[in-house]
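step: validate -> pass
step: tokenize input -> pass
step: predict -> running
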Amino acid sequence: MTRQRPMIIGLTGGIGSGKSKVSDLFAAKGIEIIDADILAREVVEPGAPALAKIAQHFGKDMLQADGQLNRKALRERIFSHPQDKTWLNELLHPLIRQLMQERTAAARSPYCILAIPLLVENQLQSLVDRILVVDVEESVQRTRVISRDNVSADQVDAILASQASRSQRLAAADDIIDNNGTINNLIEQVDKLHAYYLSRITKLKA
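step: predict -> pass
step: emit ->
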């Protein structure tokens, strides 16, 4: 008998919303976390075909002395050359998507979290069963990111402008975590959602 894949919860939210903390809280309950950002790094590790294609397309200066991707040089290149950004996305997105599907299918927990920061922007709703948005006020995002990343307010505003708006994410959400409050409030919301997801799985199996 073929094992059914677990229910997939797509976790998303804007920069500084607290997605990592929410992932950690679910992981502490034994829920497997598949993080799109980690998969994006995996597909360009030394020896990966995608990294060789990047070096061939952009030149050897995209590689560091140890063979790792020079992320700073690549960011600068695609920032000033939109066509290069398109080329890179067309190379990497299918590879990352394939890994997402493989990892979620192999997950052993009752449900799994697929953390995709740009889930709404990249229209990846079809990869998940439910969308969980970590929501915060934009003013809270700005304060957190400026403090965490030591960047200017203008840089934060540019990042926010490049992402889906708060209203767009909320419109796509099946479930919402309000992360404007305390850590205890966050834990309480994760506890309730965890129980809810388990109850949905039980009903689906009945």
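step: describe -> The chain has a mean pLDDT of 92.
step: cleanup -> pass
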